[in-house]
Design brief:
Keywords: Cadmium, Lipoprotein, Membrane, Metal-binding, Methylation, Prenylation. Its main location: membrane. One of its GO terms (cellular component) is membrane. It is found in: Membrane. The chain is of the alpha+beta class. The chain has a single domain, classed as Alpha-Beta Plaits (2-Layer Sandwich). Helix content is 29%, strand content 22%. It is built from three helices and four strands. Strands 2-3-1-4 form a four-stranded antiparallel sheet, with helices on one face. The protein starts with a helix and ends in a 9-residue tail after the last strand. The mean pLDDT is 85.
């Protein structure tokens, strides 16, 4: 047993396990007028690590992102494409307030 105890001092395992984010569905309202706008938003969101699917509906001005991502990070990435007025989907209409 002495040899095993001696060798075990050299073989240490450190666990760097990180907590995985939960699967999220993020819906964002973002105005897209053309194919270029739609493509820019889709490509920007698709490149985020953890994104599993992206659905873009230009008629409804809606982007649905599913994956292991932070919703705030998705919104920030959409805004980085120049769509600074993007907001989470359950939004309040400006003229109703």
């Amino acid at each position: 047993m002495g040899a095993l105890d001696y060798l075990s001092n050299f073989c240490t395992v450190t666990s760097t396990r990180t907590k995985q984010k939960a699967m999220q569905t993020t819906e964002i309202k973002v105005r897209m007028d053309c194919d270029g706008c739609e493509r820019r938003v889709r490509n920007a969101v698709s490149s985020i690590k953890g994104v599993k699917s992206v659905e873009v509906n230009r008629k409804e001005s809606r982007v649905v992102v599913r994956g292991y991502v932070d919703p705030k990070k998705v919104l920030k990435r959409v805004r980085s494409t120049g769509k600074v007025r993007a907001q989470f989907w359950p939004y309040v209409e400006q003229h109703l307030v």
